[in-house]
Amino acid sequence: MTTLTIRLPDDTAERLKLLARSRGLSTNKLVEELSARALAAWDTENHFRAMAATGNVQEALAILDRLDAEDQRKS
């Protein structure tokens, strides 16, 4: 495991401590969880970008049109 030192404004660090405490976590565990979420979002974005680079634009637009039509029927 790696130790990472980061610099944060005092008010940000204090708010993170309060958030961690409110969730029953250590600040370290909170930052670990938030980092995991950020990395998952980044991985998902990269996955979709890779799919888009090899995908069929017309087919993708047709899917979005069907989804929009379905949403409008539900409203």
Describe the fold and architecture.
This protein is 79% helix and 0% strand. The protein is mainly α and 75 residues long. It has one domain (10-74). This is CopG family transcriptional regulator.
List the helices and strands and how they pair.
Elements: H1 10-22, H2 27-54, H3 57-74
Helix pairs in contact: 1-2
In short:
Helix content is 79%, strand content 0%. The protein has 75 residues and is mainly alpha-helical. The protein has one domain.
The percent range for helix content is over 70%
Mean pLDDT: 92
What Rg is obtained from the alpha carbons, in whole angstroms? 20 Å
Tally of distinct domains: 1
- Taking pLDDT < 50 over at least 5 consecutive residues as the criterion, the unreliable ranges are none
Tally of helical segments: 3
Query: What portion of residues belong to β-strands?
Result: under 5%
Give structural attributes:
single chain; 75 residues; mainly alpha; 79% helix; 0% strand; elongated
